[in-house]
Amino acid sequence: RLYTIYRNRAFYRASDTSTALLPNPWVDITPSAMTSLDPNYMFTDFEFTSAGNVVFSTNNINGVQYLFIFNQWTSTWVQKTITTTNFTHVPNNGHYEFGIMDIALNSSDSVYMRIFARDMTDTTMKNRIYRTDLNPSGSVDFVSQVEYHAGVIQISPSNPATIYLLNTQHNTFLMRSDNYGASFPFVSGALTHADGRCMVIRQHGAAAEGLNDELYFGTDGGVSKKSVGGTTYRSLTGAGFDMSQTYGVHSSPTYEGLIVTGTTDNGTHGYIKHSTGNKWTKVSWNDGTYGGFAKNGVLTAYSQHQTGLSAVANFSLTTSNITGGSH
Fold it and tell me: What is the distance, to the nearest Å, from the Cα of residue 262 to the centroid of all Cα atoms in its chain?
């Protein structure tokens, strides 16, 4: 299944196991508990649990936020209320981007949430990490306060103590916690480009400090990579790709070095590590944002842009618009 969110709606689309390009319809799975909320509530992120269920997060100027857990096999929803003491979502200078901005799940299905809101004890805006579980009545625990411009959060699948946090306004684009989120120092080697926007963990190992994690990053300067066993970060920009402002990056789970990336105003590009020519190829046009790969071993890439979604069969230049209907 291919999942996507749009404002306060959630959809999935069944994929054909051979090409993923058959005209299967999109299914609106938005729970009634979401549509009955204030229409300013928006879905912000979603991640998969170890059992394959899908966890969606929300944001809103309201002080109460929610996690919605979707069971793919029974098509049922569980709603969990997220409240934080003295940390509310009062508008700040007309901006309304408050609430659960990003989530990440570890191998035990603990949910780490980056929440951006106003601290009512001193009325300042702050970025904080909270942790909870999938139990609707489970506690919501404060973990740490992080840098104001912190962005996307990811957890190493092999080592739950290792948590990555991107920074959107700093020459060093990456912070890493090695103590379950208690602190997030900057990673000194992550100086390839400024302003981290997105990341993906392609391979992972249980070594401390993320040594055996293979990481790809999208930044304001292009794309960077850290290899397994390495401590340095190198740029993949060039060899047919000279775009900046990269907002989406993903890798194939079955083929090394194959990623798609979204670039504002410049479409979606693919990277093939072992190519003998230019390693980068443009695979779709429009204002590329987020990309993805099928997880079932089929080399089908997906690109998201301002006119909808496209599927790229076998990672060639053959694309098919899969937006469909009014969604």
Answer: 13
DSSP summary character for residue 174: E
Residue 209: CB atoms within 10 Å: 14
CA distance 128 to 105: 16
Count of Cβ atoms closer than 10 Å to residue 59 Cβ: 23
Tokens of 56: 């969606």
Q: What is the CA radius of gyration of the chain?
A: 19
pLDDT tens digits along 132-158: 999 999 999 999 998 888 889 999 988
Contacts (Cβ under 8 Å, ≥6 apart) of 92? 98, 118, 125
186: burial class by Cβ within 10 Å (0-12, 13-18, 19+)?
middle
Burial class (CB in 10 A: 0-12, 13-18, 19+), 217: buried
Which residue type sits at 219? T
